[in-house]
UniProtKB/TrEMBL annotation:
Keyword set includes Endoplasmic reticulum: no
GO cellular component term of the entry, any: plasma membrane
Keywords: Cell membrane, Hydrogen ion transport, Ion channel, Ion transport, Membrane, Transmembrane, Transmembrane helix, Transport
Coiled coil: none
Main location: membrane
MF terms in GO: proton channel activity
Membrane-crossing segments per the record: 26-47, 53-72, 93-117, 129-146, 229-250, 271-295, 311-333, 354-379, 506-528, 540-561
Pfam families: Otopetrin (PF03189)
Organism: Rhinopomastus cyanomelas
Protein name: OTOP1 protein
Lineage of the organism: Eukaryota, Metazoa, Chordata, Craniata, Vertebrata
Family: Belongs to the otopetrin family.
Localization of this protein: Cell membrane
């Protein structure tokens, strides 16, 4: 095991490439073993119980806890050393997002502990140990990601590769466990809804592994059992976000980076009012639709059909708006002449791959629905709305992926290196008054200065001075001068810069609108509003079991796509 590599090609040498391959294979085998154990429990395999699965997950979490404690203690002893950081990884807004999901996950763990106490007579002790271990794991992992998500590890690289990849696949297994548990709950409700729609020929019995004993406190048991399933969507997002952040950390081990300061672009609400208003309208209406859907679906055949029709019409309208906004943004990009940043960046590459990879889940469901509509012999009225909805889902994701991927690869405009200082000078009674401009003022005046012109001003005319790197200055004095400069708001920039600013403002509004729309479209499937389950047409064409398997495999990726798109669009808004 090497402690510090002196090779100039650290991260690309043969031993390090071997360590990367070995660690990745270790993680994959770890994940496959857990996946098979999860599947065996789900299908009631002989000799496999839930306690075996939970014991395996607890063991993985304890190993990760030991590694994180070792890493934190070693980092504490070396805190004075200057370390390389990946400025693109572990953005503050991403850390805040994962912290929010982690807090809700801790509430979920507390509900599980309460549920175990009420059913302790017939539950395995591992079901009480698991939420406690998971809560400790969550707290330490969030702290670790806040402090070290940007690290580029250059010491103990072989050991760290195994530790990080172990953490990645531990979170993926915890995500899989959450998805399975939540899906089993949804399937039980799904069968009841299909019966109300007239599909009474479905005879499959679904088991939710309910405890075989009475609860000690009926009211609390009801609160815990129902509340757990409303909190699972946040737990699922927490683990998938944690695994992606840890994967970037793993890819950065031994990486050589250029030592340059990245320009920070904090989020601002200035100039995105229109996009925020339209986005909030979509978000509010979506929440209302989901509430009505969950109340009406399964009550009766008429109410269920009305709920499905209402959902499809609302989704068609929102998706059409999103397609239009995405097309406008892409047209603006076609009108601009700006190069793309093709430098090596693990975080950006992972973002693009996740967008396309997780979109495939929605595309699979959409093509399944389209095929079912074409092949079905009978078509209830509400199922025809599913056709434009499915087509728009495919088109919208296609357009949105193009917009996001191009946005995160576009180079930010920079100020010319030879421009160091711009001073605005006025002469009044023989005295000189100077004003130091902001970065924005320097940037917006750049084009006209390159042509030998002076930026347009609101009041009077001025003397402009451009100071070069040698300290010399060139001054151009106007024949007339104004007496006072009241504020920086007195500037009005030339038409070329005005057009550029208008384009940027439109792009920021589009990004803000799409951000809120993706949050809105994350809510329905995450909280049980899933027409792919409830319309019944696909089950008739493909069969109940095959279609349910397809939905259960594709739906988690579809849900994650919306949250990941929202996170990427937030970054686009900050960068634009």
């Amino acid at each position: 095991m090497e402690k510090v590599s002196g090779s100039p090609s650290a991260g690309g040498s043969y031993p390090q490439k071997t360590a990367e391959i070995l660690s990745s294979q270790y993680g994959i085998n770890l994940f496959l073993a857990g996946l098979l154990l999860t599947f065996a429990w789900a299908v009631h395999a002989v000799g496999i119980s839930k306690s075996h699965l939970l014991s395996y997950l607890i063991t993985l979490m304890l190993i990760q806890l030991l590694w994180m404690l070792w890493y934190l203690s070693r980092s504490c002893t070396q805190r004075r050393l200057i370390r390389d950081k990946d400025t693109h990884a572990g953005a503050r807004w991403l850390k805040c997002g994962i912290t929010l999901f982690a807090v809700i996950t801790l509430i979920l763990d507390s509900f599980k502990i309460g549920y175990y106490i009420d059913f302790s007579n017939c539950l395995s002790p591992t079901e009480g140990i698991f939420p406690v271990a998971h809560a400790v794991h969550t707290i330490l992992q969030v702290y670790f990601l806040w402090c070290h998500a940007k690290d580029i590890i250059q010491s103990f690289k072989t050991l760290e590769r195994f530790g990080v990849i172990h953490s990645v696949f531990t979170n993926l297994l915890l995500w899989t466990n959450g998805v399975l548990t939540e899906s089993k709950h949804q399937l039980n409700e799904h069968k009841e809804r299909l019966i109300t729609l007239g599909f009474g020929n479905i005879t499959i019995v679904l088991d939710d592994h309910a405890p075989q004993c009475n609860c000690t406190t009926t009211t609390l048991c009801s609160v815990f059992s129902q509340g757990i399933y409303y909190l699972y969507p946040f737990n699922i997002e927490y683990h998938i976000l944690a695994s992606t952040m840890l994967y970037v950390l793993w890819k950065n081990i031994g990486r050589k980076v250029e030592h340059h300061q990245q320009h920070k672009t904090p989020f601002s609400l200035h100039g995105i009012t229109v996009g925020m208003i339209f986005g909030l309208v979509v978000l509010t209406s979506t929440i209302a639709i989901v509430v009505v859907y969950l109340i009406q679906i399964g009550r009766s055949k008429i109410k269920s059909e009305l709920a499905l029709t209402m959902f499809y019409l609302h989704a068609i309208f929102v998706l059409a708006l999103m397609c239009t906004a995405g097309i406008v943004a892409l047209l603006i990009y076609r009108l601009e002449d700006r190069s793309l940043d093709n430098s090596k960046n693990p975080a950006r590459k992972l973002d693009a791959e996740l967008l396309v990879g997780t979109a495939a889940g929605s595309w699979l469901l959409s093509w399944g629905s389209i095929l079912a509509i074409i092949c079905a012999q009978a078509h209830p009225k509400y199922t025809w709305y599913n056709l434009p909805y499915s087509i728009l889902v495919i088109i919208e994701k296609y357009i949105q992926n193009l917009f996001i991927i191009e946005s995160i690869h576009r180079e930010q405009e920079k100020v010319n290196d030879d421009i160091k200082t711009l001073r605005i000078v006025t002469v009044s009674q023989g005295s000189t008054l100077s004003l130091t401009p902001s970065y924005k003022e320097i940037y917006n005046g750049r084009a006209t200065r390159d042509r030998g012109e002076v930026p347009c001003l609101f009041k009077g005319t001025i003397c402009a001075r451009e100071t070069d790197s040698s300290g010399g200055a060139k001054e151009e004095m106007s024949e007339e001068s104004s007496s006072v400069i009241h504020s920086a708001s007195d500037f009005s920039f030339c038409s070329r810069n005005s057009v550029t600013n208008n384009k940027r403002r439109i792009l920021k509004n589009i990004a803000a609108f799409l951000f809120l729309c993706n949050l809105s479209l994350w809510i329905p499937p995450a909280f049980g509003c899933r027409p792919e389950y409830d319309n019944g047409l696909e089950e008739i064409v493909f069969g109940f079991e095959p279609w349910i398997i397809v939905v259960n495999l594709a739906m988690p990726f579809s849900i994650f796509y919306r949250m990941h798109s929202a996170a990427s669009l937030f970054e686009v808004n900050c960068k634009t």
